[in-house]
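Convert to structure. Protein one:
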Amino acid sequence: MKHLSKAILTALFLSFIFTQIFFNTQCEDIPNHVIRLHILANSDSEQDQSLKIKLRDYILYNSRSLFEKAENKREAEHIVTTNLDKILKNAQGYVNSLGYDYKVSGKLEDNVYFSTRRYESFTLPAGNYTALRITIGKGQGHNWWCVMFPPLCFSAAEKHDGKQLSDVLSEDEYNITQNSEQYEYKFKIAEIYNDIKNFIKSHSSR
């Protein structure tokens, strides 16, 4: 009886490990299909945080049609890089028009780490993502982020005709983003795994 109990516990443990490994693999693939938008406020003052939200809405509204023809992340990255100067120029003009002299800078960056993030209708697991990072002034305030491709952020600003999350992810990956409560403990384990992996990577490169 004791041997049977050990065998059952071992089988359950191995099943959990394999399931978590499969879950982690799916979570690691999700960043290969999306681009995040990351806006850093000048400071945490009420005015600077308000400016951050206004600039967010401005960028979303004026960029809403850019990604409608993008079929995948690679095409979306090309769109961002070819339109970045225009996006930043318009953003700078908008900030100045509101009476601020903050410099607006930005670039498309790879391997930007994000923790697990829950939005109203979906959840993105922790991982290293490609992100368009927009910095207002000193960029020392609380930031805001969402998904630029597929253009999920744009839903709040205006209806769009671009790709949806379900169009760029596998069925299993999409299911993960839609059922955060079901996978809550797995998200936490995956986040710990990413933290350890990034810690090892940062120290091994020194």
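Protein two, convert as well:
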Amino acid sequence: MALRHLSIFLILLHALAGVAQDRYPQLEQIVTDNAHIFTTYQLQGLRHKLTQFEAETSNQLVVLTIDELGNETIEQYAYGTFNQNGLGQEEVDNGILILFSKNDRQVRIEVGYGLEPHITDAVASRIIRNTMVPEFKEEQYFLGIDKATDQIITFLKEPEVLEEFKREMEEEYGMNGWVKLFMALFLSVFVAAGGFLFYKSYSGVVEMFRGMLIGKLGLLQGIFMVIFGLLPVFFALVFVGMPLFFATMIFDLGIHWEEQEGLLEDFSWVYYLLGGFLIFTLLLAIAKILWKGKEDFQFSLYKNDSTYMRKTFSSSGSHSFGSSSSFGSSSGGFSGGGGSSGGGGASGSW
């Protein structure tokens, strides 16, 4: 009986794994028209063109149309479909997916790792904006997709045409050296301010640990002071992190934040990060004690050294906590070749 139950469990587990694996469409053709926006003639012609392109270059340019995305963003759906089907060839990752969602009125060009240096996010975005969206607004869905595939094929087969296209983008939309310099200086002001705030607040937290380790700051009060002292530390990190985040977007540093969507689903990494941060701070406090060599390690549960508290945490000291009794302050015939995408590409709507 137990063996029978185990067999049933394994069958169900296998079925669930199959459902998870096929969360996105299993592509059996180089063009899959699930939204039924192409005529038979258009579908056959597009398949022939893309199959021939793959035979000539080994690059896989795949088209998928769907009715709607459901509860996912088009970035998530394209990324999942791309990697589930392994578009492009393994190790070279030379696949591109054009995903069209009819009811959501959205389209995305998802680019494999290997082709990202050629079909950059900016290039994909301009193809969508200038080639596809104007046709989609007139409900000329096939024409928009057909033109986009022609453009991508030309860019990958004729590098000089792609370079000219990129030069035109730089002239039309790109920032010149002076603008980039101004933006860098503007963001650096916030980074510098955040860095200074981090140094001041973090130095205070290190000193709190040191005070507890030498017995001049009671453990009970010290723990509360550390908790409230960490608030400006984290605020300073945000103050530094946000300009750096925007810098990756403005200066096109090749970082694709779509890849990190799993961090928003599983927050276990936060506990590890916080634990490591506190351990590192404790080690710094110990190193500070050993380096000075003037105090011995000892602990006090609740008793504080009033002179130490006044000099270290008074309003005239490096950190303010009110008085010595204060606790702190707050703030199909087709198959993928095993390639993968890192989230590069662009999306658009009409």
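The two ends are 59 Å apart (CA to CA). The longest strand covers residues 341-349.
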